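Sample intake sheet
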Amino acid sequence: MITWPVVSLVLKGAAIAFVATVLTHALIMFLLSRRAVTPPTGPVPTPRVILLVPCLDEAAVIAASLDRLLSLPYEDLVVVVIDDGSGDDTAAIVAGYHHPKVRLLRRVLPEARTGKGDALNAAVSWVLSSDLAAGLSLDDVVIGVVDADGRLEDRVLEEVLPWFADPDVGGVQTGVRINNRHVSRLARMQDMEFVTFTDVYQRGRLHVGSVGLGGNGQFMRLSALRTLGTHPWSDSLTEDLDLGLRLTARGWRHVYCPTTAVHQQGVVEFGRLVRQRTRWFHGHVQSWRVLPEVVRGVRGAARWDLVYHMTAPFLLLVASLLTASFLLGLVAMTIAAWHGAPFVGRWLPIAYLLAVTPSLVFSQVYWSRERADGMSRLRAAGLAHLYVVYGLMWYVAGWRAVGRIVVDHTGWAKTARTVETDELVLPPVDGATGVPVLTGADVPLTVALPDRPAPVGPRGATSVRGDRAGRARTAHAVARTERS
C-alpha cells in the first residue's frame, strides 16, 4: 500500500531532480556562452537583401522604422512593407516614400488579417514572381524580417552577412534590445529578459547547433525558405519558432550574431504584457507538433537541447506549482509560528540562493551590455532581484494560455504600439529625415496581395515604389500588378 510518506518522498525527489535539471542546463548554456564567437573567414557575401516588414495598423511607428531601414549603408537592399489590411494610415505613409528601395504590398479581407505567417508567405511568393529575384540564384538572396517597430543598428548587415559565407547557414538571428528601457521599469525587465535569452542561451546554443529564430531581426537564405515549400511560415502563433525548428530539422544551421541587435518597443502596461506572453506561450505549445520532425532530423546535443527548449511550457507550469507550494508552506509556517509553534527557517537561505543566484549571474552579463550607459554592477544585482519577481508573470501567462487552449480559443489581437518620442528610439543614422503622413485618399491602391496564387486582376499583387518626396501631398504611386 502506498502511504503518504512514500508519496511525499517521491514528490520531493522529483522536485529536486527538476530543479537540478533546470539549473544544470542554465549552467551549461552560461559556460558555453562565454566561449569566443567568430564568423567564417574569407570573402564576405554580397547578396540581395530583402527586408520584409509585416504591418497591421502600424501608423504610429512605421515612418521611423522606414527611415532607419532606408539609411542602412548597403546598396543592394529592398524594403517590402506588407500592409495586412490596416485600418489606419499605414499604407498611406508607406506610399508616400517614393523611393526606389521601397515596395508596398497590400492585402485585403478576406485574405488579410489571417496571421503574420500568412502575410510573410504572401510576400515571399510575390518576391519570387517579381523582378527582385529575377536572374538571381536563391542562394544569393537573403530575406530579413523586421517588425514594424524594429530599429536595426546601422552595422547590422556588415555583421550579419559574413555568416552566410558558410553554405550550411540557413538563418542568422541578431540580438534584441528594448529601446524604451530607460523610461519604463517594466520595459527594463523585458530588456534584461531578451539580453539573458540571446547573450546566454542563444549564444550558448551557437556552440551546440540549436540556435532559434526570433521573428524580429532574423535573416534567412531564400533557398533555405524554399526547402519548406511555397508556404514556409506556418499558422502558429509563434511562426518564427516554428520556422526555425523546421529549417533545423531539414539540415540548415542557424547562428546567433552577438555583435549587433534589433531594437524594439517594450510593452509598458502589465495587462498587455501578460496578453503578449500568453500568446507566446500558446504558440510554444503549438510547436510540439514539430517535435517528431525535430527528433528525426536533428542529431547529437542539438536534438536534446531543442527537445528541452520545446518542453519549456511544461517546465514552466511545473515551476509554477513548486513556487506555489513553497509560498503556501511559508505562509503555513508563519501562521503556525504566530500561534506559538517553532519557525523552521533553516531552508530559507537555500530557497533564496536557488531563486536568485541564476539571475545574479545573468545580471552581470546584462551589466556588460549596459555599463557603457553608466550601469553599475551593484545596480545590475539589484535588478536581478526585481527580475525574479518579474518572472512570476510567466506563471500567469502560462496558466492563462492553458485555459485558452482548453476552450479552443485561438483568436488574438496584435500588440498595440505607442507613438515614439526621441527617448524611445535609436539616434538616427546620418541622412535619415522625416516623412509626410498622407491620408488614405492620397494612395491610389485598389488591388490586394493574395496569400495564394491568383489571376492578375482585382485580387492580384500590388507593388508601389518611386522616389520619396515630401513636397507633394498627392502621391503619384506607381502600381504594378504581379501574378503571385
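Comment: Confidence is low (pLDDT under 50) at residues 421-484. Residues 359 and 384 are 5 Å apart (CA to CA).
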